[in-house]
Hints:
By secondary structure, this protein is of the alpha+beta class. Helix content is 33%, strand content 20%. The chain has a single domain (15-96), classed as Glutaredoxin (3-Layer(aba) Sandwich). A hairpin with a 2-residue loop joins β3 and β4. It starts with 14 loop residues before the first strand and ends in an 11-residue tail after the last helix.
Amino acid sequence: MPSTPxxxxxxxxxxxxxxxSPACHLCEAALDTLDRLRERTPLRLRVxxxxxxxxxLLVAEHRAAMSPLVLLDGQFVSSGRLRTGHLLDLLRxxxxxxxxxxxR
Length: 104
């Protein structure tokens, strides 16, 4: 679970949704990466359990084969290992100035 609050966010900040499973090392790695990213760019983070009603709906909708399912403003980013480069590209398309070093 993310340990730092990150920068202040507004309702217009991008929303990253993570649908995670219990005891999932890829889920924890994704959350750690997103935690570091939140230190460099404003974004809101939603964490859902895969077994929750909403989590099950999102997994079915996006046909996620592995956990975690990661979405940016409802758009598919990755399933399984977080595709960090793809996430950064999507954030840049939304106007964020995010260097690759933000997640290293």
